[in-house]
Design brief:
Beta-galactosidase, Chain A, domain 5; mainly beta; five-stranded antiparallel β-sheet; 4 helices; Immunoglobulin-like; about 400 residues; single chain; eight-stranded antiparallel β-sheet
Length: about 400
């Protein structure tokens, strides 16, 4: 009489514990992702995806017998890695793993706070400097009203050549890589945040929220304020957040540096900022002093236009500026994201100075309204040598159309 009951009890126990065994097995199974190249050949491509909550502490990807691929997760739970080669139409599956990565083998991108700035380096070599506080004036004849912070200078090529200029004699308000609006209207006044010498407006650095380093990218988040100086008391018109990321790429046979800038601008109060039709305003870049003068600097756009006069006021996905530094060619390419307002954006290409600007205001008036953030995304490629149009097309496509990721 006891045997059937014992068998039934054993069966019941098996049924009850099966779900727990299944759960344990599922928990033990590593999470995976599958990356699809899509219609493009991929090489050294930045891939980003939302890290699943089931994979805390993951810091690498593993695919068969291949070497581990470093994985870096940011504060928002977005994980990034550098995809090696993946042919057009191909897919590759990776396991998400925890691993001990040798720093010497991986390399590190660092963003380090220093007095008045953030220095970004790759493998110990400087990539760029972001100036937080107002920088010192390089010459005594420059008016104090022109002092500015919240911009990037210098920016360097892999060989260490500086491609930017700061406080150039013919445009003292130009500062490496910076963001400002020119022809604007705010509460009935017309502040100019670009031409600072007129004391109608300015852009102030507010705070450095954070800076980070890692095997995939390094960067910082900072805040700026666009201040109307025509009001009875200085009044903030816009608040701006910068997020800058420099990537651990471009260390092959043809080295380059790559970094992104995302600018998010929001109204500081209940009034909109109207941006009026004008030939320049927005993200600006001032090239090295050696490139000043029409014969000393050249441009090339994604549309194949190499005549700088003809390139002005046209639209392009990217534009390269370059010239000789210490007898050798160097340059920087500006890549606009397709999600940007009025993309591909109109461009200000100066006829004889090393100045470039993506200028959506060329296409007519618009406004930044309360509750509607104005987001601008750009990628920058810094290199020695002449521009390679096919390579810049490839890099823009990677930026605009990244591989798809399926989390399993």
């Amino acid at each position: 009489m006891q045997k059937p009951l014992s068998s039934f009890a054993a069966l019941l126990r098996s049924i009850l514990i099966l779900p727990f065994i299944h759960s344990a097995l599922c928990a033990a199974a590593p999470a995976r992702i599958t990356v699809a190249a899509g219609d493009l050949d991929r090489r050294e491509t930045i891939v980003t995806f939302a890290l699943p909550s089931s994979a805390p502490g993951v810091n690498a990807l593993k695919a068969g017998g291949d070497a581990l691929v470093p994985l870096q997760t940011d504060a928002a739970g977005q994980a990034s890695f550098v995809l090696g080669r993946l042919p057009r139409g191909a897919k590759k599956t990776f396991e998400l793993v925890q691993a001990k990565l040798e720093a010497s083998a991986v390399g590190t991108v660092k963003a380090e706070r220093v007095p008045g700035a953030v220095d970004v380096t790759l493998g110990g070599v400087r990539v760029l400097r972001y100036n937080t506080e107002k920088t010192e004036l390089p010459r005594p004849d420059i008016k104090p009203v022109l002092r500015r912070g919240g911009y990037v200078h210098p920016i360097l090529t892999p060989s260490g050549k500086v491609v930017t200029d700061d406080y150039p004699r013919n445009h003292l308000h130009h500062h490496g890589l910076w963001f400002a609006w020119t022809a604007t209207e705010f509460e009935g006044r017309k502040p100019d945040f670009w031409n600072m010498v007129e004391a109608k407006g300015t852009v102030e650095f507010v705070a450095l929220d954070r800076a980070w380093s890692g095997p995939v990218h390094a960067g910082f988040v900072s805040r700026h304020r666009f201040v109307d100086l025509l009001a009875s008391e200085p009044k903030a018109a816009l608040n701006e957040i910068w997020e800058v990321r420099a990537y651990n790429v471009g260390r092959g046979a043809k080295p380059y540096r790559m970094f992104d800038l995302i600018s998010t601008q929001t109204c500081a109060g209940s009034a909109p900022l109207k941006l009026l039709n004008y030939r320049y305003g927005g993200i600006g870049f001032r090239g090295h002093a050696a490139w000043d003068g029409a014969p000393n600097c050249f441009f090339l756009t994604s549309e194949g236009e190499a005549d700088r006069v003809k390139a002005h006021a046209t639209r392009a996905r990217w534009c390269h500026m370059g010239g000789k530094l210490d007898g050798a060619l160097a340059g920087i390419a500006f890549l606009g994201h397709p999600d940007n307002f009025r993309a591909p954006e109109p461009m200000r290409v100066h006829p004889d100075e090393p100045f470039f600007n993506f200028a959506p205001c060329q296409a007519g008036d618009f406004e930044i309204a309360p509750g509607k953030p104005y987001v601008s995304r750009y990628r920058f490629i810094v290199s020695d040598g002449p521009p390679d149009k096919a390579e810049l097309d490839r890099l823009w496509n990677d930026y605009a159309h990244p591989p798809e990721v399926k989390v399993e």
